[in-house]
Structure to design on (993 residues):
């Protein structure tokens, strides 16, 4: 569940000046604390701070880790801490430390650039200046955004519409925590539209729905081009997560003389004169193979 | 000891040497040894419900035993962890990962995901083999469903449900500080029953289709990390297997001689292989990064064809080939350049090319109509190919420290084979203003327009395909789009309350379309609030509203429009909840309530203008979840939970539609969802280890 801290991180810009690759501190030891983590832990001994020591960020045997031999410990991620940890005069505010926001990203990317991937730079989240800590909690072994059951709630902080969509009558199982946003999306590194996980939208859907990939003998053109031409993947009020009901959905593109172009009005519902074109699965009552057919006699998608 | 900061980065933020010889980390509580918590409990569910149990695993009333847990083991440089969720349910998950950070890691995960669509369905069909649905003995055929004299006595319950099992095995090996190899294998097995339809010209039967799919995926990558650049070479494969090539079924209606049974082709087995190369280079000047991605793939499908027909009474020529030899080549190329030429200016340019080149052979096929008669017509298959080229330019300028203005231009070109529009171009322009006067307030306003032009709509081709030449398929039509968005986020200066709101509007106008979708509107409003009342108590509220309206026209006379229809979907969601910890020191409480409401209104207007509104398609969800944890001792916890979920829906496509309601369609009689389920549970959690 969201916490106020995370919301504030979503809103606030880090108090310290932006630190990026183009800024290099002029002094060396003078800006860092005297004793590293022991300096920080003198004040920051709460559960949230100490939770870091149950994560891969605090592995002394890993030379890459902030707590590896000779590394900068807390200050590897939070930047030089001398000013923040020094004695403060009465009435003065303690200088802030880099703790959140986009300004901290350069420090994270110092180590995690290859983990994030080459597509991060210039991608939507980077362009919108979303900080790593806006989504990630590095001080806990259970980073909510990294676990299937809790991930969606983190994303909903900035994507509230998708929460509403996941609660609709027909949707992917995000509400129960059985699927996560990264099942389809790659928020760090994606060259595809909508930051999808694979090269195209269809390729992303085929990860779990490979039976729709074909290629079929008789293809249905919109299926082969883009699943979202008919489906609303985040959720809808229509079975099959369709964006609209048959037959009107189909009649948007099918106008052949005969039954495809006939108006099907409310006179065809069950309490009136039940119509095979409206009830059950509508057009699919006969044209079942709507995603394509590999049957030699399947050109009308009925076999 | 001196520390060099640039241990694993492409850039150096602090390229300096710091003396850390006094940094002994005396007070650092590094993890070692093992710890685990085990949870065992029981849950009671008071009613059956397919939808409630879909994904959760609680589809039937009764008692459930459940086991969960997690743990970790740290021994010197080796770290491992495991996690088990809901082992007593059909939605169980198990995960184990471990490794030596800095050298290698691995992960094994298993998950089951049940899907229960309907538990109200009934069928006369019996599964006489894995791929065959047969009529019961003594079945009496008829031309219409009301004539099925043996229907009622032969209907048997058949739930529409399936399960997806996923096994993932993966690992990474850091060969050096520059090279890393990673590999992942994922197998998904999905089997069960879903709904398909077997039709005969004018009659059809809903069939409970058994299916058994397997999809294997392989993902192997080699990463190289240089001082200013990185690249990744990858290989991905996806292999789909289907254990049923066909679904054979008996026709319950009176058939033409020889057409008493037929076969539906099932999704063919297929493979997809793709190699990719991606990377980025960071220039020293102006924080400039050039990233690229390139991928080349191939989809193949070569299943043996079913015959034209199983009706031996029909004379049909031989198939032009025994299998399709289908082949589609995919190409995906991307280039992106981002730069900060001035400390107030950021620019970005991206190019993207995607191609689906369908090389499937084209043959001539005899047209047999639903195993009933040979039309004598010959038709050729159409291998659709697509190309998409995108150019995206954007820039952001900091007018003031608190004000940023950004603008962008996108151009997307799509080319298609064998369709009414061979080429179309969409141009989008947008602008955005961001105002952040302080750390407590942020306002974003964005707006833009997009125009999609087509080279020409090939009415000759449309006519040849039997379409009304005035039809414009909405993805191929001229379209003018306007969109705007307002986002506000604020934190109150004194109270720890944050609020945010979003308003989004988009309108698509298909002004050159006479037949087809003519307009589409989408309005979304959302707001939420979070309040940390104290260190131990937080409260949240969220709500959103969305309204989507589409208008379309049609023509029964195959001429100018003589009917129209509107589709309006409205959604309203509201939720609230609280987290209260350390009540009386030992109790934690969480409570969540959600209400979600969806309404679809469809209205048709005939030639004379008379309207025919359909009954609303309604769905309403109310869910409340409550969890109370009692920390009995340092190692023991008791967890009590209560969950109540009510769902009701009105769906005219299902309501009152029994197996024999539609004269020419034998349905499964599925009923709209309507349930009211309460779950109460208790579990005991024990923590072991350090």
């Amino acid at each position: 569940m969201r916490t106020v801290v995370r919301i504030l991180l979503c809103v606030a810009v880090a108090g310290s000046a932006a630190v990026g690759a183009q800024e290099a501190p002029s002094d060396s030891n003078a800006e860092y604390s005297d004793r590293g983590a022991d300096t920080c832990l003198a004040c920051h001994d709460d559960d949230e701070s100490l939770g870091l020591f149950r994560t891969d960020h605090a592995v002394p045997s890993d030379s890459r880790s902030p707590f590896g031999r000779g590394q900068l410990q807390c200050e590897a991620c939070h930047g030089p801490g001398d000013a923040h940890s020094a004695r403060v005069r009465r009435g003065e505010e303690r200088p802030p430390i880099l703790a959140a926001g986009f300004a901290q990203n350069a420090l994270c990317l110092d180590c995690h650039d290859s983990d994030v991937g080459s597509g991060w730079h210039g991608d939507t989240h980077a362009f919108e200046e979303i900080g790593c800590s806006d989504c990630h909690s590095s001080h806990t072994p259970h980073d909510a955004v990294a676990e299937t059951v809790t991930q969606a709630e983190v994303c909903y902080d900035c994507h509230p519409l998708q929460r509403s969509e996941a609660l609709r009558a027909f949707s992917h199982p995000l509400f129960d925590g059985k699927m996560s946003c990264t099942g389809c999306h790659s928020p760090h590194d994606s060259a595809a539209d909508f930051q999808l996980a694979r090269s195209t939208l269809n390729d992303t859907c085929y990860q779990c729905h490979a039976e729709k990939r074909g290629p079929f003998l008789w293809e249905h053109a919109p299926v082969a081009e883009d699943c979202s031409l008919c489906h609303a993947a985040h959720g809808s009020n229509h079975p099959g997560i369709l964006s609209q009901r048959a037959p009107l959905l189909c009649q948007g593109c099918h106008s052949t003389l005969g039954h495809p172009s006939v108006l099907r009005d409310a006179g065809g519902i069950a309490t009136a004169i039940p119509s095979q074109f409206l009830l059950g699965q509508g057009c699919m009552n006969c044209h079942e193979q709507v995603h394509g057919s590999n049957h030699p006699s399947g050109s009308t998608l009925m076999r | 000891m001196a520390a060099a900061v640039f241990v694993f980065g492409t850039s150096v933020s602090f390229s300096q040497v710091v003396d850390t010889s006094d940094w002994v980390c005396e007070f650092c509580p590094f993890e070692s040894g093992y710890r685990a918590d085990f949870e065992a409990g029981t849950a009671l569910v008071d009613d059956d419900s397919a939808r409630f149990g879909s994904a959760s695993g609680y589809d039937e009333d009764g008692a459930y035993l459940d086991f969960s847990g997690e743990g970790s083991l740290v021994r010197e440089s080796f770290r491992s962890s495991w996690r088990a969720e809901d082992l007593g349910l059909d939605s169980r998950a198990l995960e184990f990962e471990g490794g030596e950070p800095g050298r290698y890691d691995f992960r094994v995960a298993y998950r089951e995901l049940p899907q229960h669509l309907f538990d109200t369905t009934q069928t006369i069909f019996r599964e006489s083999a894995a791929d065959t649905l047969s009529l019961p003995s003594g079945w009496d055929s008829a031309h219409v469903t009301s004539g099925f004299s043996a229907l009622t006595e032969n209907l048997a319950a058949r739930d529409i449900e399936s399960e997806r099992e996923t096994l993932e095995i993966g690992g990474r090996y850091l060969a050096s500080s520059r090279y890393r190899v990673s590999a992942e294998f994922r197998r998904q097995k999905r089997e069960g029953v879903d709904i398909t339809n077997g039709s005969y010209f004018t009659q059809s039967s809903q069939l409970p289709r058994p299916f058994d799919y397997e999809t294997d995926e392989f993902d192997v990558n080699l990463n190289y990390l240089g001082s200013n650049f990185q690249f990744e070479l990858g290989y991905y494969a996806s292999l789909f297997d289907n254990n049923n090539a066909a679904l054979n079924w008996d026709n319950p209606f009176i058939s033409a001689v020889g057409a008493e049974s037929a076969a539906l082709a099932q999704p063919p087995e297929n493979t997809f292989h793709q190699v990719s190369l991606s990377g980025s280079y960071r220039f020293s000047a102006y924080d400039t990064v050039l990233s690229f991605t390139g991928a080349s793939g191939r989809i193949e499908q070569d299943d043996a064809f079913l015959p034209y027909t199983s009706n031996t009474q029909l004379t049909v020529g031989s198939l032009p080939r025994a299998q399709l030899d289908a082949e589609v080549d995919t190409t995906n190329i991307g280039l992106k350049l981002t730069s900060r030429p001035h400390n107030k200016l950021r620019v970005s340019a991206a190019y993207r090319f995607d191609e689906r080149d369908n090389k499937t052979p084209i043959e001539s096929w005899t047209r047999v109509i639903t195993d009933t008669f040979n039309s004598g017509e010959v038709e050729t298959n159409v291998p659709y190919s697509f190309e998409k080229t995108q150019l995206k330019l954007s820039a952001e300028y900091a007018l003031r420290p608190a004000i940023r203005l950004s603008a962008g231009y996108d151009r997307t070109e799509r080319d298609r084979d064998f369709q009414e529009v061979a080429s179309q171009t969409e141009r989008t322009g947008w602008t955005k203003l961001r105002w952040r006067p302080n750390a407590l307030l942020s306002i974003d306003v964005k707006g833009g327009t997009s125009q999609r032009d087509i080279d020409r709509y090939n009415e000759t081709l449309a006519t040849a395909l039997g379409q009304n030449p005035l039809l414009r398929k909405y993805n191929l039509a001229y379209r003018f789009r306007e969109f705007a968005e307002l986002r506000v986020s604020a934190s109150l200066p004194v109270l720890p309350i944050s609020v945010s709101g979003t308003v989004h509007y988009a309108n698509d106008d298909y002004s050159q379309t006479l037949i087809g979708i003519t307009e589409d509107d989408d309005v979304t409003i959302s707001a939420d609030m979070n309040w940390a009342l104290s260190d131990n108590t937080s409260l949240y509220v969220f709500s959103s509203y969305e309204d989507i309206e589409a208008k379309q026209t049609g023509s029964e006379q195959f001429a100018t429009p003589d009917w129209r229809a509107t589709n309006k979907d409205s959604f309203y969601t509201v939720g609230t909840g609280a987290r209260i910890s350390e009540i009386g020191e030992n109790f934690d409480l969480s409570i969540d309530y959600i209400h979600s409401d969806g309404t679809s209104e469809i209205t048709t207007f005939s030639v004379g203008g008379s309207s025919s509104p359909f009954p609303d398609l309604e769905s309403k969800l109310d869910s409340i979840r409550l969890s109370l944890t009692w920390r009995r001792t340092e190692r023991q916890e008791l967890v009590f939970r209560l969950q109540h979920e009510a769902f009701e829906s009105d769906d005219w496509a299902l309501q009152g539609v029994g197996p024999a309601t539609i004269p020419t369609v034998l349905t499964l009689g599925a009923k709209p969802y309507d349930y009211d389920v309460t779950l109460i549970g208790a579990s005991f959690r024990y923590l072991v280890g350090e």
Remarks:
- Chain B touches chain A through 216 residues (CB under 8 Å).
